[in-house]
From TrEMBL:
InterPro entries: PAPS_reduct_dom, Rossmann-like_a/b/a_fold, Sulfate_adenylyltrnsfr_sub2. SUPFAM superfamilies: Adenine nucleotide alpha hydrolases-like. The lineage of its organism: Bacteria, Pseudomonadati, Bacteroidota, Bacteroidia, Bacteroidales. GO terms for molecular function: catalytic activity. Residues 32-211 form the Phosphoadenosine phosphosulphate reductase domain. Pfam families: PAPS_reduct. It comes from Paraprevotella clara. This is Phosphoadenosine phosphosulphate reductase domain-containing protein.
Amino acid sequence: MNLDKKIDYSIALLRKAESMALRLDPENGFYLAFSGGKDSQALYHIAQMAGVKFKAHMNLTSVDPPEVIRFVKRQYPDVELIKPKMSIYEMAKKKHILPTRTLRWCCAEYKEFSGFGKVTLIGIRKQESERRAKRNEVELAGHKFSGTFDQWEEHEETMVTCVGGRDKILVSPIIYWTERDVWQFLNDVVKVPHCKLYDEGYKRIGCILCPMSNYKQKVKDMQRFPHAKRNWVKVIQWLIDNGYINNHNISDAEFRFKWWISDKSFDKFYADEVLQQKIDFEI
């Protein structure tokens, strides 16, 4: 489909799902998950074009780029900014472990808890990754259902009744859009500004030193936001001093920070940085 057809499809999906959203939250309708990035902007504006009822929320993590927060406050003043009860640094101490690519407790603590008991709009796209390519336009948290809206309609009565407590219905209106579609939509259709970090080389906008970012992105973050590195080194030292990190008996917090941003397992990083240096190639 070209972009015009994708826009029409997204609008139709939102309008079909609106009755479900109003059924669970008559006052606000959809719970729109906003981040300030290009995809959440596209999600926000396609919801506006559809004319559906929604309330946008942005869950802060304490490691949000200040440029993003300023952009959202200026361009999207109606978005509710939800401050965390505990900083991510203190949460790492509480959990006794750093967030990693394979253990992303940060997402669970600061992002995924929002929108329970509601129909939540999210800006994921199949093109983003192999994992997201398997996602569907309508899902029930906990993967109890995943499919198209037409499939959902067959089970809507039962599934809506089941939503409660920590369940939520996820709707992804732009799931079939490409990155090019998103930029064309923002620049040529709705004609709105975007966060300046994109113009400075950032491919994605998220938390500073996000475990899901690649190594080059983390290096860029360290250079731009040196306070984040200092804070994480302090956390790592605290974890070492309190006995929560002790493999290989390395008490150097800087060394462990370098491992944390390396995208390598600790054993692989240790072998590359320490063991390889001990080999005497003159023998």
